[in-house]
Amino acid sequence: MSNVAEPSLQPPLAQPSLQPPLAALAGRFLTNVAHLQALRISLRAAGPGWAELQLPTPPQLAACAGGMEVASGALFTLLDTCAGLAVILRRGTGEPQVTVDLRLDYLRAATVGRDVIGRVECYRMTPRVAFVRGLAHEGDAARPLAHVAGPFMFPGPAAVRAAEQPA
Amino acid sequence: MKVPLLSPYAEFMGLRLDGAVVVMPFRPMLTGVPGILHGDVITALLEIAAGIAAQGLIPAGAMVKPISTTTDFYRAGMAEATYAEARILKAGRRILNLGAECWQQDRSKPIAAARVNFLVLAPEVPAGEQQQETPAGP
Question: Which of A50, A91, A138, B88 could form a disulfide with A121 if both were Cys (CB 3.0 to 4.6 A apart)?
Fold first, then answer.
């Protein structure tokens, strides 16, 4: 199991640009989130079910003062955001979704000053749960900085939530 | 080793330390949906709490690096101060396994928890040994 195949992160059936409704969804998702604005995370590319975002890494994201390594929390933010957007683009709706849990493996350090690219796909969608996987890199996806995986849950309308409450 | 309290990233997030508890005062830049904390902000807080606890476990001169983080999100974070504290699950010589939990007003109702695993990097080899590996200068 040491050499598991690289995750297949090619664009699913090359869809370089988003259809207008999806583009509007992606735009709303990114511009309405104050924390993403604070980190200056921007959209690079996306399609139905995948998203690629870019994170600039100024010195204030360093893991230690004067250091050149980017804090892992910033990578987590980038990849969780990609993941959330990938799920939205797969569903085609901005209805509520919740990160159940998310795992990041930090494979190598990101360097301050180099933009980090995150790319995540939603590879399985069920009525209540979606699964994502993806990675972050600095321009060469064959040298990933981090891998991410986890499930998202859709709470659904209030009536559905109430019906599912244990008695 | 003097514990490096807060990294530039932690300062960017506005964190401060209160004993072993890391405090994150609310700021609008930490939100996702207006009025709700962004989930990644919570993870960053948990990781930083774990990192500070890990620093306290290693010998002088050693360093820790996070190798994996798994966050469970329990409930939404509201627009108020958030706290996190880590505990040691297993402190090995090479790997440290930490758990961290974060809460808001009521500590008995955590909003998220994470497991963060660190690699311990031994103190740097003495400069003399390192020089043997670098090519001689001109």
Answer: A50
Least Cα separation, residue B135 to chain A (angstroms): 24
Residue-range domain boundaries for chain B = 8-123
Judged by CB atoms closer than 8 Å, whether chains meet at B9 and A98 is answered as no
- The helix/strand/coil state of B117 is strand
Question: Where does A20-164 sit in CATH, by number?
Answer: 3.10.129.10
Q: Which residues of B touch A (CB under 8 A)?
A: 4, 7-13, 28-34, 38-41, 43-44, 47-48, 65-73
Q: Give pTM, 2 decimals.
A: 0.79
pLDDT greater than 80 at residue A39: yes
* pLDDT value of position A34: 83
Query: Angle B70-B57-B88 (CA atoms, 0-180°, nearest 5)?
Result: 40
C-beta separation of A119 from A50 below 8 A: yes
Work out the end-to-end distance of chain B between its first and last CA atoms, rounded to an integer number of angstroms.
36
| ipTM over 0.90 threshold | no
Residue B127 has a pLDDT of: 54
- Within 8 A of A105 by CB-CB distance, chain B residues are 67-68
The amino acid occupying position A25 is L
Q: Which residues of B touch A61 (CB under 8 A)?
A: 8-9, 12
User: Quick one: which H or E segment has residue A87?
Assistant: helix A72-91
Asked if A64 lies within 8 A of B31 by C-beta distance, the reply is no
- pLDDT (average), residues B69-87: 95
A13 to chain B, closest Cα gap in Å: 30
